[in-house]
Amino acid sequence: MDDNEALQHLRKAKTAHLKWRTYAQALAAGVGVEDGKAPVAHTECEFGRWYHGPGQALREVSDLYDDIDDPHRLLHEAYGDIYQLAKAGKFAKASEKLNTLEAISRSLMDIVDACMDEIRQR
Fold first, then answer.
1. Residue 57: which of 120, 119, 121, 104 has the closest Cα?
2. Residue 103 and residue 72 in contact, taking contact as beta carbons nearer than 8 Å
3. 62-118, pLDDT tens digit by residue?
4. What is the 3-state secondary structure (H, E, C) of 45-80?
5. Residue 120 and residue 122: Cα distance in Å, rounded?
6. Each residue of 22-60: pLDDT tens digit?
7. How far, in Å, CA of 5 to CA of 58, rounded?
8. CA distance 81 to 33
């Protein structure tokens, strides 16, 4: 994987992530989302399939690659909790969990940004 391709995949992942995060925000606010936005394992989302598949080649261009997996997994766990709480009508608790998700999200985006910077500086 060359640097430009790696950056393109990471930019796409960031965009998809930010869009996905809005679903969690909507759920916590009591707004329903489509069934297709139900939680999935971190290895089953579009980014997860890329990260655990073809994205493995990113290890060649970034030392930070492995740092992405744990926060990505935690993010999906938090989303699953929010989804279940919202389905049960527990929106206050879902909003509390949203704070956790947003903190994990910021951490994950910081790692992705650092990874992109690392690639750009090669």
1. 119
2. no
3. 888 889 999 999 999 999 999 999 999 999 999 999 999 999 999 999 999 999 998
4. CHHHHHHCCHHHHHHHCCCCHHHHHHHHHHHHHHHH
5. 6
6. 889 999 999 987 777 777 888 988 788 888 888 888 887
7. 9
8. 15
